[in-house]
Amino acid sequence: MRPFDYIRATDPTDAAERTSAPGAMAIAGGTNLIDLMKLQVETPDTLVDVGRLDMGSIEEAGDGLRIGALVTNTATAVHPKVRADYPVLARAILAGATQQLRNKATTAGNLCQRTRCTYFTNIDQPCNKRAPGSGCGAMGGVARLHAILGTSDQCIATYPGDMAVAMAALDAHVHIQGGRGGDRQVPVREFHRLPGETPWQDNVLESGEIITAVTLPLPVKGKQIYRKVRERSSYAFALVSIAAIVAMDGGRIARADLAFGGLAHKPWHDPRLADLLVGEAPSPALFEKAADVLLDEADARGGSEFKIPLARRTLTAVLTEATETRT
Amino acid sequence: MTAHLKQDGPVDRAHLDGMQQGLLGKAVPRIEGYAKVTGTATYAAEYDVADPAEGVLVTATITKGKVTYIDNDAALAMPGVLAVIADARMTTRPAQGTAGEAPEQEPQSVSYWGQPIAVVVAETFEEARNAAKHLVVAYEADADVDLDPAAAQPEPQDGQAVEMGDLTAAMDAATHSVDLTIETDGHASAAMEPHAAIADWDGDNLTVRASLQMLNYNIAELADALGVEEDNVRLISRYVGGGFGSKLGISEEVVAAALAARQLGRPVRVVMSRQQVFQCIMRRSETHQRLQLACDAEGRLTAFGHHARVSNLPGESFAEPVLQSSHFLYGAENRSLGMDLVRIHRMTAGSVRAPGEAVGMPALEMAMDELAEKAGIDPVAFRLRNIPGENPEEDLPFTSHTLADCLRQGAEAFGWDDGPRRPRMRREGDWWIGTGMASAARVHNVSEAKARVRLTAEGRAVVQTDMTDLGTGTYTILAQIAGEMLGLPIDRVTVELGDTNHPRGPGSGGSWGAASIGSAVYLACKALREEIARRANTGEAELGLKDGAVAGGRTLVDLLGGEALEEVGHYEPGDNQDAWTASGFGAFFAQVRVNHWTGEARVDRMLGAFGFGRVLNEKTARSQCLGGITWSIGAALTEALHFDPRDGHLANPDLAEYHVPVHRDVQDVEVLMLEERDPLASAIQAKGIGELGMCGGAGAIANAVYNACGARLRELPMTPDRILAALPE
Fold first, then answer.
1. What is the mean predicted confidence (pLDDT) over A253-257?
2. B691 is a catalytic site residue
3. Which of B651, B659, B664 sits opposite A118 (nearest CB)?
4. What CATH number did the domain enclosing A317 receive?
5. Residue B155 has pLDDT above 90, yes or no
6. Where in chain B are all domains bearing CATH 3.30.365.10?
């Protein structure tokens, strides 16, 4: 670990200002950042502790639910309103990490967590995300857990989280303060980036911007499912995960908000799926068609080929469950 | 005085059972448990040594070649850095178990990615780690590197080869046969406590506190590496946070700490990072196995072929002994067994819990399941039909044989359905449910062991040996043996382990620890009893020692008369090792569920029935079995080392990416211990137990996966990608 300065931000404006300094990084729960610092993947000069700022509450807002940037994952997952109205979010959070990590991890930190690609975390291997221009070690290496959608020649890493996948299905918004453009809101679906030619940029946060909250829209009707496929039954990143909010009306699909984890550099949301599914009667053929659309540009580079049939089958399973009408 | 036994034949089984204290075999909680849960047990890196400097290993970023330059000056200019050491005596690999001599040295020569090449020492750990990560090293890389075990040139291991009868002819002539190839990925020991050492010189005398399994060998390995006499070296390893083979031999941090401490003239601590533990310590080799089995119409095996290919670095003699139990588990007149070793440049392959059987037994048991299915015989009945009366290759009788009992009682306790079996008989929602079983076997060994037992004038017993306790219960079982023999409650027995100033034990490994060192403690206590009996004017057998009193009313303290007594027990294996085949046996039964859509497999319940001689402590023995079954689940479903095909570096070097089972993966596990007395196994009629629980268990799970969903896997672990690929439509 490289020596660093540690300062505590006094308010969000102070945090935004201090983190805009070169070599400065914000720290909240630290569950990801400290690991990366020990590995010298992250080598900040200054850690700006935002953990004591007043952003740790969940409030009902007129347009839904506002989850402060510093609310722990545990607190979100057990919140009665989240459990009642947004169960897909509670389930997604509980499917991630361990109880100990969830107790420390925060809303904003979770959104900003970095890929678990082991070429990224090993500084003695090439990685365009960590060391731009050094190459991608995962391509041609061990890349079983890597992306099959939205990859680039630069990077095939996945976004590792669960919480954001549910938030993408819910069409939640990220509230951002500071920076040159002033305060702004970004849909979670647009918060994370694809790697393209700049794989070191995980998301759209600019230097000096601070996440203050995530807002969930008004509760919607329908069945909410979070299905995470993983090698062991806890404490493993998703091979494929699906957050689904599906409503039926008169035997036809009335709503189908789907987001996918484990497939791409971001929580994957494809608007073509809802277009295809809504208004149709559920059937295995329809689900196959949905999978065709989802995976029409899927591209596995070295070891992750299995994710293509796995995503297809998992989507079928989730849609089957979501559209079942109990008799 | 020394009480010596070289065991050439059976011991008197009645003697130990005739004791009065009633302590042995009981579920006594671990006597060091309180120290551990309160954080007061000192692990290797935790000893309070005055003013230690901190060392961090630097590891190679090439696979093969030479270090040509290290920029010491730049590192020494960094804050707190005291030294950059690349001494030719530094070791570059862990010593193999029981080596007793230094492993490869000369760190400027690189033979695998991640090999230690230097140690940076600084005032603080953070400064040392930072400098180590920044150290500029130049290499001359050798591009001629073998990394693929399937492509490397095999070296036949003649010592493992057996040819009896005519396998090919028997396969051709048989009513039923299977000929299949099974591959298993490499494993890591993944012990909780990272490897660590604190070295401290006093003149020419060196003390190293380290996390090691076999101090009796480690002291020789360290002395040899440093070029000093054993008499000048003391190793201390009082508590070990798991070893599983990874601490059998000294590893790189021990020698690095010793050399750095010598150079700096102050104590030096070197702790490996989790990633270093994964990449510098032992791996279990991946295996490629061919099983050829045939039987007649009644299900009697007529052909038994088992051939394996494993890998290691050049210069290493260890070859994962995949065939170890295949030599004697099942009878068949026509036999062909053989092993090939290939040389590849991945880190050292060595002993990981249950070397050999951990991967050989599951493959064999998967083949047995397929043959039982072809023959239309229940898999339990099929195994019962093929238990040999004596070792089928060497004409040697078994010291005892509990396989049949384990199969029968295990099946009964599990509720095994011996009706007709076919895959996909039961589905719950998206999940296929199925059952499977496998035999368990693990060779039993004992090793030379010495222990001192002192009876103080106050009537307390103190047991001393350099034997280690890896968290298995050694402290407790030795206290139980001494308490049982000397008629003392457990709180009047003190056990001191893990210090080479004590008599040499057998070390912990190969499941031989408890039986070997327990025998030495037993012998010392027996000699003490004889002296007490002499003083009490009675026969040793008539002493009736219990709670510090002797039959007839006199107390132990009276008889001691203010004097302390001391004996060293010395146990040696003798002719019994050569004249008999000794093994622990067992049977696994598993119920699994496999998701139809995703190929995820989970173990709903598992039962292991085991026979391994005397149970010394019902609780710690059971825990050993539970641990073994947990390892079985890992080997079956999740544990795999993934190596980069281009440079051979380990791509999943931590516990987030190397998937040992989590609590939720280990659901309903039941252990049935079939207690017996094996008078040929050891002086206390106990056999090895630590490894048996994972010798076949992954096979039971694989067989259950087939029964559940119809996927016959040819690779372990059975991750969802592999299950989906094997799933019939």
1. 98
2. yes
3. B651
4. 3.30.390.50
5. yes
6. 2-41+446-573, 379-444+582-729
